[in-house]
Amino acid sequence: NECELTFTKVDGTKRTMPCTLDAKRLPPVIVKESAKEKKPNDQVMSVFCTDKQEWRSFRIMNAEEIRVIVSSNFAE
Questions:
Q1: N or C: which end of the chain has fewer CB within 10 A?
Q2: Rounded CA separation 24/72 (Å)
Q3: Which H or E run contains 20?
Q4: How far is Cα 41 from Cα 58, in angstroms, rounded to an integer?
């Protein structure tokens, strides 16, 4: 699905972001070598922002509303 997520950013401002985790709408995966491995953080979620066409993350506890704006067609 494509959703509209409203959350409070770390700086205290509100943000409403159209986003998705639908594999059909995500960009191709590009594997980059990194000097340091990131530790998983179960308090933060990454989503693909459909208006910026970039990955964004937010603190789960700061999410206020999630609304489905485009539903995936599971019959495909």
A1: C
A2: 9
A3: strand 14-20
A4: 11
